[in-house]
Amino acid sequence: MAKKMRTPEERTIDPAAQQMLVWADELEIGTAFSRADQMAPCNIGGAGMCCKICGMGPCRLTKEGDTGVCGATIDTIQARNLIRAIAAGAAAHSDHGRDMAFILKAVANGETEGYRIRDIAKLRIVAQKYGIEIEGRPPEEIANELADLYISQFGQQKGEVVVVGRAPEKRLKLWRELGVIPRGIDREVVEALHRTHIGDDQDPEHILNHAVRTALADGWGGSMIATDVSDILFGTPAPILGEANLGVLKDDMVNVIVHGHEPTLSQMIVAASQDPEIIEYAKQAGAKGVNLAGICCTANEILMRQGIPAAGNFLHQELSILTGSVEAMVVDVQCIMQALVGLAEKFHTKVITTSPKVKIKGATHIEFDEKHALTTAKRILKVAIDNYANRGQTKIPQVKEKLIPGFSHEYINYMLGGSYRASFRPLNDAIRDGRIRGVAAIVGCNNPRSKQDYLHVKVTRDLLQQDVLVVETGCGAIAAAKLGLLLGEAGLDQVGPGLREVCETIGIPPVLHMGSCVDNTRILTVLTQMVEEGGLGDDIDQIPAVGLAPEWMSEKALAIGTYCVASGAYVMFGGASPVSGMPDKVSDSDAVSHYISEGWEKLYGGKLEFVGDPDEMVRRALEHIDKKRAALGLRPYNPDQFGDSGDERMLALEELPLAQKREALYGVAVEA
Ligand code: NFS
């Protein structure tokens, strides 16, 4: 039977992507969008009810009371599948963190080419958190000690991962009582695999308890290490002007796309692309120079630090090659589709793998190592430049938007109070007053099973209208960027009156781009600082805040969702639930869904839910925010109180004669 193929408009709301999908159809080239149409998901596996952890199966359970050959129940199988996904996500983030820690060590010991410690202030602040002596010591010495400490956290066997000590005190105490503090980062991932081997842990709640510990080893472990070290080596982000979407590709330059997650190589490619030798080499090839652009979280890393444009989010990786204008797509780790290689063969694009961990058949492998970083980066760029002569017809959609990324927690702290009074007080006060109703973190992937960017943008817009301040990371942030929501005043007409006042006063966009997916740890830090500032309770679960991943697809997203729940947040995922049970659900197959929602809420104050309908997601988010406001004894949210002191009113007053203006401003007539 012929499958129903969606139109480009049904597949994405992004006009650039729509143009490329029309083009793909004309060329009869498949993409993730068309493959998703052609291949329906397996409804047994999708529901978490397929077990393939041993050779007696795979066992496919379809109705209440079914068990696997070994007797495993639906609940046990769902819990095992979920923890394995969380462990894989935590492993991916944490292994990235480990590599960053090793690079820090190498930089500290002068063993790298081209790197240096850029943010000495952050190095000192982070080192001090762990009691590392900083006074009178050169940065390299401090960095060496910090690197050793961080490296040791991965293989630590007993005790507590030191990074968790940065959580609010009350939360830490709770985790200790519940026995979920990670002992060592690798240990928890290994134990998750051990427990889910045939014939081991078979109590779903006990399995999911360890899922929490594994996820915490990611958020308050590997990922936080990755963010810290990236900032120390490449600079803590601050607002910078950038651009996003396929329109950033250039017809008269050699286009190189960096795609993946680790900033180490991409940062060096940024440096190499500006090197006079490389620019000259490109000119000799007939191009004006090298134009760099990013995809996925590598994009976020170099966008928020150097303002290098983002060509797009996850579902743009194939579309960028379809433009015919990409000389090289340089990939490192994670979220790289195997389809890129076959697609690139239809154009002139070279797919270059660079990580010792990732090879793809048919791709060119140029392995990167920190000892020869700049040399390798130049070599890669020369391969791309040499390929410029092979470029055929191009089709670059003239669609791009400006944005201002770079809201690290350090910058948010600074922007709220300036150099002398840096503080989270104004944010907490704005929430207490009700100018800001609450905060939403909208994060995560694209998924070709839903309309690209639609869910991200829909929930973002709806929450902004309700005076909810939005922070974003990952592909969600790039979605908002492409639709023009990350540019100061541009979005303010779509924002509730109280939030608009706050944004105008501080001079910020209503959606703050906080970085890549490992940088979700910045959100944990912001929440912790809000708790420490006072006035919003004494733990993260009391803050009127929610986390949303409307278009999730990766295992990393499940790890992030779980550590946020364990930190006290209400987290909702869009799309399908990996533990849904069959559509004609029987009570039995709901146990895991209930446990990660109501069960976890009782323990951690946060809960994980899968909500397919975006309106329902927004409704639940607002209900939760209002519930938390009430519990804190804050005045109920009332948008009518605000909107009278923003820029719009000031401009209207400008029109009035002086005396009237003063009366309007001060409430009494003031003599001139
Ligand atoms: Ni996050 Fe970043 Fe994007 Fe999803 Fe992949 S790039 S780490 S996993 S797809 S948001």
DSSP, total strands: 16
How would you sum up the global shape? Answer: globular
The largest beta-sheet arranges its strands as 6-5-4-7-8-9
Distance between the termini: 82 Å
Poorly predicted runs are none
Ions, cofactors, ligands: which are bound?
FE(4)-NI(1)-S(5) cluster
Helix count equals 27
Percent of residues in helical segments? Answer: 40-55%
Any overview of this molecule?
The chain has 672 residues and is of the alpha/beta class. The chain folds into four domains: 74-234, Up-down Bundle (Substrate Binding Domain Of Dnak, Chain:A, Domain 2), CATH 1.20.1270.30; 242-390, Rossmann fold, CATH 3.40.50.2030; 404-631, 3-Layer(aba) Sandwich (Rossmann fold); 642-672, no CATH class. 48% of the residues lie in helices and 9% in strands. It contains 27 helices and 16 strands. It has a six-stranded parallel sheet, with helices on both faces. It has a six-stranded parallel sheet with strand order 13-12-11-14-15-16, with helices on both faces. Helix 19 (454-465) links the parallel strand 11 and strand 12 (468-472). Helix 6 (120-129) packs antiparallel against helix 10 (204-234), helix 10 (204-234) crosses helix 22 and helix 10 (204-234) packs across helix 23 (555-566). The mean pLDDT is 93. FE(4)-NI(1)-S(5) cluster (NFS) is lined by residues 261, 296-297, 313-314, 335, 444-445, 474-475, 516-517, 554, 556-557.
